[in-house]
Amino acid sequence: MKKIILTLLLTIIFPQENDGPYVNSWGLIIGINQYENVTKLDFAVDDAIAISDMLVETFNFPKENITTLLDEEATKDNIVKAFSDIAFTAGEGDRVLVFYAGHGETMELAEGGQMGYLIPVDGNADNLYYS
Question: Beta strands 66-70 and 25-31: pairing type?
Answer without folding.
Answer: parallel
